[in-house]
Amino acid sequence: MNIWHFVLREIRHRKLNALLTAVSVAVATACLSGALVLLKADAESSEKALAAKQQAVESAGAELQDAMRKIMKGLGFNVVILPKDQDLQEMHLTGMINKTMPEDYVDRLANSNIVTVNHLLPTVTKKLNWPEQNGLPIVLYGTRGEVPIAHRDPKKPLLDAVPRGSMIVGYQIGLKLGLGDGAEVTLLGKPFKILKTHGERGSIDDSTVWINLREAQEMLGMENLIHAIQALECHCAGDRISQIRQEIISILPGTQAIERGAPALARAEARDQAKVTAQQSLADEIESRNELRGQRERFAAFMVPLATLGCALLMGLTTLANVRQRRQEIAILGALGLRSRQVLGIFLGKALLIGVVGAIVGLIVGALVGGVLGGSEGGAGVDGATVALSFALAIGVALLGSWLPALIASRQDAATVLQQD
Amino acid sequence: MIRLDKVGHHYSSPDGGDVVAIKDVNLSVAAGKFVALKGPSGCGKSTLLLIAGGLLRPTSGDVEIAGVEPYKLSLEERAAFRANTVGFVFQQFHLVPYLDVLDNVLAPSLASGRKDWKRAEALVEQFGLTHRAHHTPSALSTGERQRAAMARALYNEPKVLLADEPTGNLDPENAAIVLKQLVAFADQGGAVLMVTHASDASSVADEIITLG
Ligand SMILES: Nc1ncnc2c1ncn2[C@@H]1O[C@H](COP(=O)(O)OP(=O)(O)OP(=O)(O)O)[C@@H](O)[C@H]1O
Ligand SMILES: [Mg+2]
Predict the structure, then answer these.
(1) Which end of chain B is flanked by fewer CB atoms within 10 Å, N or C?
(2) A3-13 and A340-374 helices cross at what angle (nearest 10)?
(3) Is position A70 within any domain?
(4) Burial classification of residue A243, based on how many CB atoms lie within 10 Å of its CB (0-12 exposed, 13-18 middle, 19 or more buried)
(5) Which ligand is nearest to the CA of A419?
(6) What is the ipTM of this complex?
(7) How far is the CA of B25 from the centre of ligand 1 (A)?
(8) Measured between alpha carbons, how far is A158 from A5 in angstroms, rounded to an integer?
(9) Torsion angle of C-alpha atoms A111, A114, A118, A120, degrees rounded to 10
């Protein structure tokens, strides 16, 4: 005969009372563990969904970046830096530039911290009739190859320099000359070897002859002068050309800049915008999920203590009923010499036992319900902390709820009760 | 063994007035003596028994049981004193309803800490309850219940046995068994104080005291 034996016998005898107390503990525990499991499942699935979305946005972003690079390259040079006094109206009409600027502009640009353009290419261009070829009209294009921008990593050039004594000819010129690559020709009295004939481009390129910049400058009497600097604008969002102008003019006040191929760029920009939108929607989703989670957490933080309090109250009332039912039995135990703290021990022992049972039942129910609602298989969400918290809460509720009734039982006067029967 | 000196008790009733239950009672029961307490209903017999058992502090007078003045002890000490010195038997038996006979007999061990299955089994046998040892009180006859209550009262080997109309609910045959056990307890050197109405019960007593 010990207290546990006694407690178990009593529980078996008054099953309904024990069941009620266990249920109230289990309900409080289920509320807590269910909320914990649900919040955890929610956080996990949210994290997973966000990670998937983030990856989708990132890989789409990488593809976009790649596509952008290809578009930009396909466009070729799309910014032209011209002498400030060049009449653009005239240039558009004749296709030619008749003003010049010093060649060292390109070096100044290359040595600056310019960010809006890339691939600087100084050029001279001149429309002329090729005397040695029956006055064939051509565009002579002198280029020295790209000038690397000092503060950037070297990039693969869009256009290679043409060595001295060589020329590259456009498609139409090739047809008109009827000569293959490697053939020797003379231009303005100078001998050239044809390095290469371009395929048809359907543009002025087809009627262009490219030669070395130095040679072109000498032939045209334009030593150390150039007509234009071709450049490729960087992939940047916003009102590009005004940014580019601002930057270039701040470095080279004697110039102006124009942009070509704007529609293609606009398309690129739209794609860029799509990327920004995707990122924004991801950010929005993260925010809304966080907000929802915050709401759920606040709800749980309010409901769990409320449920706990209610269950503790129910536990208290049920235990009080138990104490009243057992008045005579407690009185007789008192007459037999049981001390008041032993009586307290009988009731708190029972509460502890019920707390443990309620914790197990509540934990299982809470994990299942929380798991089902949270969309994960229940067991996955139950961690050590949830188990520990559930047990602490269950035993806390059981002991707290029975404390006062147990105290009443232990203070009961045996003589009074024994006189009353 | 039991000595009450000018003991009085009054209950304070809820309507404010006092109910005087007993007044200036002098009583003593020596070791080995069986004393019967008689008197009309409401004269304070049960009150006196509770006082003599260390359960109810009298409003006046001195009490000494087995050389100890229980009302000079703390509540806890008095409980321990009861566990080791006093055995109670009530008219209503007051068995614990969910414990079987053997566990009811062993119940005093919760208080005394003295667990002795052999003794419990021997007591059950002594009271002719061996075949009922594993039945709960609801399955027992009234005589069997009172015998179980007697066995429980004797478990801790008390020095005094206090019985409040122990035969009141019993048929003559069972009443005789209970009285025989009380006499046997006194014969072994214990002090018995029994409240009774029945005249045949008082015939076995060494002394009869009439209250009121
Ligand atoms: N708790 C109480 N509060 C107030 N009065 C009480 C209380 N207990 C008993 N009394 C009163 O004290 C008096 C003595 O009661 P007690 O029970 O001791 O009488 P009794 O002699 O045992 O009676 P009976 O023979 O009917 O059992 C009675 O008048 C009773 O009404
Ligand atoms: Mg009485």
Answers:
(1) C
(2) 60
(3) no
(4) middle
(5) 1
(6) 0.92
(7) 15
(8) 93
(9) -40
Strands (E), A91-135: 101-102, 117-130
Which residue's CA is the nearest one to ligand 1's atom 5? B11
- Beta pairing, strands A166-169 & A190-197: parallel
> Is residue A64 domain-resident?
no
pLDDT per residue over A83-112, tens digit each? 999 999 988 898 889 899 999 999 888 888
Residue A65 lies in a domain: no
Residue A199 lies in a domain: yes
CATH 3.40.640.10 fits B2-10+19-210, yes or no: no
- Between strands B34-38 and B191-195, the pairing is parallel
Q: Which atom of ligand 1 is nearest to the CA of B22?
A: 14
Q: Which atom of ligand 1 is nearest to the CA of B39?
A: 21
Condensed to tens digits (0 to 9), the pLDDT of residues B171-184 reads 988 899 899 999 99
Q: Which domain holds residue A144?
A: 79-259
- Bridge-based pairing of strands B2-12 and B18-29 is antiparallel
Using a 10 angstrom Cβ sphere, with 0-12 exposed, 13-18 middle and 19 or more buried, the burial of residue A3 is: middle
- The CA distance from B142 to A84, in Å, is 126
Task: Check CB contact under 8 Å for A1 and B84.
Answer: no
Is the pTM higher than 0.80? The answer reads no
A256 neighbors A244 (Cβ within 8 angstroms): no
Residue ID of nearest Cα to ligand 1 atom 17: B46
In this structure, are A231 and A293 located in the same domain?
A: no
Q: What CA–CA distance (Å, rounded) separates A225 from A147?
A: 15
CA B141 to chain centre: 20
**B97 at interface of A, judged by CB pairs closer than 8 A:** yes
Number of H helices, E strands in chain A: 12, 11
